[in-house]
Fold this protein.
Amino acid sequence: MKKEHKEYFASEKDFLAHEFKSKSRIIDDKMVEVIAPDGEVFSVLASIGIYTNEETRHNQLHIIEYVFDKNFSDDKELMTQNIWKDLLLNGVSFMGMSSGDKQGERTRIGNKIRQIRKEKRIEAKDLARLANIDAANLSRIEQGKYSVGLDILSKLASALGYHIDIVPNQM
């Protein structure tokens, strides 16, 4: 057991028995799919599928789940940076990971907020103050790097004179 999870679990047996919110599974020799606690799906390029020993495969998948749970955040940029670091620290041999399957939606929403803000000639720092959120968070939202919750999205929409609605996808 690596030093990193010794801080949280009394033994390797306790660690392996723990049920994490994140779930991982081997796709093929080089790819692992991870479903984060919020349901977002990430692909991790890790050669866990090449191990012939089932216990080794299970242990490596469990470490990935631990790392995803430990670093889970609405700030997906920070989350992925911390996951990279922790996977390496915990001895998972991996080469990269996706930005998640909701990245396109984060980018679309962020671009729309920026577009409306600019159309209304509102400075980002002023919109952040109106919505009572941190200006740095607004910047990350507009860049699609932050998974914005409904409360913050409602505050931004209200400050821009909009409301949240469910509308059909445009084809």
